[in-house]
Write a structure and sequence with these properties.
The chain has 135 residues and is mainly α. The protein is built from 5 helices and 3 strands; from the N terminus they run H-H-E-H-E-H-E-H. The chain has helices at residues 2-35, 39-47, 70-92, 102-110, 128-131; strands at residues 55-60, 95-100, 116-119.
């Protein structure tokens, strides 16, 4: 069991390392877009933004277990967020929940108040080349 867990951990670590260029590019894009605005433009932009009529909440869990309390912590965080802020939005239909990963999708599908849609195979063959969009 330890050998299997070690092999799965190594595969997960390799996938994370392969996602780093994507995360770095996303960070660079965000920093560039914010720093390109002057202070007055940034204030104008932030003050002029109307509150959205619809919102999307993203939950990312794994497809399988053997990752400790990761899935449980993600699900508990989203459930607590629902209780505090958004349960009325869910009932009105102004908030949608998108789950990435089978564990989160299975949990939220069974809940009465949430209507989750899921993407369970997003990370299966993900590479930087598939998600890179040049600018």
């Amino acid at each position: 069991m330890k050998m299997v867990s070690a092999a799965k951990l190594r595969k997960a670590q390799d996938k994370i390392v392969r996602l780093r260029p994507y995360a770095n590019k996303l960070h660079e894009l965000l920093v560039d877009s914010v720093t390109s605005l002057s202070d007055s433009e940034l204030r104008t932009f932030m003050e002029g933004c109307p509150l959205p009529k619809k919102s999307l909440l993203l939950s990312s869990t794994s497809n399988r277990g053997l990752c400790g309390a990761f899935n449980t912590n993600v699900i508990n965080e989203k459930t607590g967020y629902f209780r505090k802020n958004t349960l009325n939005q869910l009932r009105k239909g102004t908030l949608q929940l998108l789950t990435i990963g089978r564990k989160g999708f299975d949990y939220f599908r069974k809940q009465k108040n949430t209507h989750a849609s899921g993407q369970n195979n997003l990370f299966n063959n993900l590479t930087f080349e598939k998600c890179y969009i040049g600018y």
